[in-house]
Amino acid sequence: MSPTEHTPGGTPPPTTTRYDAICIGESMALVAPDPPAPLARGGTMRLDVAGAESTVASYLAQLGARVAWVSRVGEDPLGRLLRDRTAAHGVDVSHVDVDPTAPTGVFFKDPGEHTTVHYYRAGSAASRLGPELFARPAFAGCRVVHLSGITPALSASCAALVDTALTGRPLPDAVYSFDVNHRPALWSAGEAGPVLARLADRADVTFVGLDEATRLWGTRTPDEVRALLPGPRTLVVKDGAVGVTSYRAGRVTFAPAVPVDVVEPVGAGDAYAAGYLYGLLTGLTEPARLRLGHLVAGAALRIPTDVATLTDTARLLHHARTGGTP
């Protein structure tokens, strides 16, 4: 079933319908000072949710895809918060397992001249994810499997999950999408670089920021990234406010960034991946996929939290196809 056959942002179709995409990975409760101020000052805090894969799933669902977020949370109020918030965007959360013996992960944002984050996720429920989840019958026929480089840093079983996906292709009909998403707070560039390069090179569609590629591998241009990662059928290299370059079917396509007043950059990369993947699912041209990524990322950049509400998806899709700016 095509994503265009049901209403964008609406109730997913019956479970007998195959998924357009499954997004696998951890999400956590996010605690941040409100208004923004250094954590050490204390004061009023805002409790929110954040996670790369659930963010991608949330935007895909709003655009109109039938998508499941696949994860594990604790049997606690924070786990319930994560599932409820993600489901509110139209995402199927029935494959989020509830673990009675491990907690939901939490992280704190510490605003300042250079905002930092502090993770409390060791031993989290999501760190117990493993490759056995691919045996679930509901995933048969799934069109896209989306993963990120955050997951292999969480535990040995999580690393095995990503390696199994990209090496063994347990869902043979799926396109495997991988966002490098290096998190320095989880593992150093020296430790992560070789692992993430190997995984990124095995995916069908790989997303990477030029800044993180430079940090991980010393590559300074999109062409250098492509030379390092020749394996993906599609490589998408993001360069912030400059634009995005894709390598696909022997062609190089560049899409300049769409100007936007930035409120908070967190989540924009995941929003971009969702826009691009929705374009892939619906058969948009490569330039239109890149533009849709920019437009969805622009919505994320305009808000202080991870997931924006896409109020007019038809307009976004129109501008992606025509090259216009909303």
TrEMBL record:
<dbReference type="GO" id="GO:0016301">
    <property type="term" value="F:kinase activity"/>
</dbReference>
<keyword id="KW-0808">Transferase</keyword>
<feature type="domain" description="Carbohydrate kinase PfkB">
    <location>
        <begin position="22"/>
        <end position="301"/>
    </location>
</feature>
<dbReference type="Pfam" id="PF00294">
    <property type="entry name" value="PfkB"/>
</dbReference>
<keyword id="KW-0418">Kinase</keyword>
<dbReference type="InterPro" id="IPR029056">
    <property type="entry name" value="Ribokinase-like"/>
</dbReference>
<dbReference type="InterPro" id="IPR052700">
    <property type="entry name" value="Carb_kinase_PfkB-like"/>
</dbReference>
<protein>
    <submittedName>
        <fullName>Sugar kinase</fullName>
    </submittedName>
</protein>
<comment type="similarity">
    <text>Belongs to the carbohydrate kinase PfkB family.</text>
</comment>
<dbReference type="InterPro" id="IPR011611">
    <property type="entry name" value="PfkB_dom"/>
</dbReference>
